[in-house]
Amino acid sequence: MVVAGGMLALSVGTASTVSGQQPVEDEGAAASSTEQGQTPLDESFDWRGREWRLQKRKGALEDTEFKLHSRTYYFYREKYDGSISEALATGGWAGVKTGYFLDHVSFGVTAYTSQHLSGDDDRDGSLILASGQEGYTVLGEAYVDLRLVEKFHLYVGRKEYDTPFINRNDSRMTPNTFEAITLQGTTDLGSEGATLKYGLGYVDAIKDRNSDDFVSMGRDAGADADRGVYTAGALYKKGDFSVGAIDYYCPDVINIGYAEAKLEVAISEKLKPRFAVQFIDQRSVGDDLLLEDGDSSQQFGIKAELPVGGALFTAAYTNIFGDGAIQSPWSGYPGYTAVQVEDYNRDGEDALMLRAAYDIPWVKGLSAYALWVHGLDPDPAGLYARDEYDLNLQWTAPKGVLKGLSLRLRYAVVDERGGTGDDLTDLRVICNYTYTF
Q: What is the rounded CA–CA span in Å between residue 38 and residue 334?
């Protein structure tokens, strides 16, 4: 796989969805090993979106969908230095996506909110509330969807997007959203089920997940300049094989390229291991407003998954090399070993992850996973190796009056081998309820 330079790739998730970038609330823990807040490349370039797919087109008003998503979130983290971030918040989002007027024009609007229930000012930093433990409300989505032809769409305005390095990062109260103009499409290749998904666009600004303001992509990345991101890319998929590349070019700030390939091997009816490889290339560009002149860094990652009945066993390895850490300013970090707390993306850092997940059969909708990530010492002096241990328990109401309700408990311990010698602990309790009509 080769990551092209220049201005390469953006794709869209969709309005107001709980996307597939994580083990989401309505999936079992054994469905995927993708961490919350991430978007795999093969789940990008979805012109239809996940939960706003229209099943009929009798008329725009008939096809209009409304979605209410309630979320209550408790967050507690004791850091390596003993300081604590803690808060309890409630909120969520409400949105509408119309059908297509004249079979070509649709509109989407979504408002997001997070309101303070508990949390002292001296325990700020949970990211489920704005700075200072303040609540916020924002019109995060307001866009036009133009269906130019079947399976080819133009999106203009504020919208959620899901790609490896520009995504919702929906691991707190509300997701990231973006101001952008994008083109996306899907082409069927022959009669054997092969498809090519593709997208390109310009992203001008981002509303971070705990903010009510849109700021330029360049400033959000840490540069003292207003810059947007040009992006384009493609994903080829045939059966259980996919390969694609995507690139994000922010003038004078940074260029990030990403490539990934996935393959499932059917050894027998019950034995179907899955394999994936990823490559990230990051480098300074133009006036070098963020990185040093000539700096570049890379990451290589490999992952293997083995489904066995209701269980999923995963092993992954990543390696960072080059001139520094890999940046991820507009998304959850997509590395295979990035987990609840640590991303393992520091300069020169290697990491190995082992994960086991299980859909518990005697309680419908209940699942769990546990994982361990073993990190090695990064290159810079004063940084130390870390091991992270995560436990996740989640329940999703399968049907009936509680359908749409999910409860999730997440607990992590990070052991830093050096420094102060103190562990970091992270506890999250999340309640979601989604209603669509």
A: 5
> What pLDDT does 46 receive?
58
Residues of 60-71 as b/e, b for ≥16 C-beta within 10 angstroms? Answer: beebebebebbb
pLDDT of residue 400: 83
Q: Are 385 and 377 in contact (CB under 8 A)?
A: yes
* Euclidean distance between CA atoms 147 and 252, whole angstroms: 33
* Alpha helices by DSSP H, 177-242: 217-221
Closest CA to 79 of 425, 368, 419, 369: 425
- Which residues, in sequence order, are CB contacts of 176 under 8 Å at separation 6+? 160, 167, 168, 169, 170, 206, 207, 208, 209, 330, 331
Q: Which of 55, 56, 60, 154 is nearest to 103 (CA)?
A: 60
User: Rounded to an integer, what distance in angstroms lies between the CA atom of residue 390 and that of residue 412?
Assistant: 4
pLDDT digit string (tens) for 279-314? 999 999 999 999 999 999 999 999 999 999 999 999
Q: Are 205 and 229 in contact (CB under 8 A)?
A: no
What's the rounded Cα separation, in Å, for the pair 259 and 41?
8
CATH superfamily of 41-436: Porin (2.40.160.10)
Mean pLDDT of 256-272: 95
Using CA atoms, how far apart are residues 66 and 68, in angstroms rounded to an integer? Answer: 7
Residues facing residue 21 across a β-bridge: none
Report the phi/psi class of residue 382: left, alpha or beta, with left for phi > 0 and alpha for psi in -120 to 50. Answer: left
Q: What are the phi and psi torsion angles at 218 (to 5°)?
A: -65, -45
State pTM to two decimals. Answer: 0.85
Q: Virtual CA dihedral for 377, 320, 170, 211, nearest 10 degrees?
A: 80
Q: Using CA atoms, how far apart are residues 432 and 410, in angstroms rounded to an integer? A: 14
197-213 pLDDT tens trace:
999 999 999 999 999 99
Written as one letter, the residue type at 436 is T
Q: Which residues pair with 274 in a beta bridge?
A: 264, 305
104 band by pLDDT with thresholds 50, 70 and 90:
very high
Q: Which residues pair with 86 in a beta bridge?
A: 76
Task: Return the structure tokens found at 375.
Answer: 């990190």
Please answer whether residues 269 and 276 qualify as being in contact, where contact means their C-beta atoms are separated by less than 8 angstroms: no
Q: What pLDDT does residue 32 have?
A: 76
Q: When comparing pLDDT for 200 and 56, which is higher?
A: 200
Using 50, 70 and 90 to split pLDDT, how confident is the model at 193?
A: confident
CA nearest neighbour of 203 among 331, 77, 106, 94 = 331
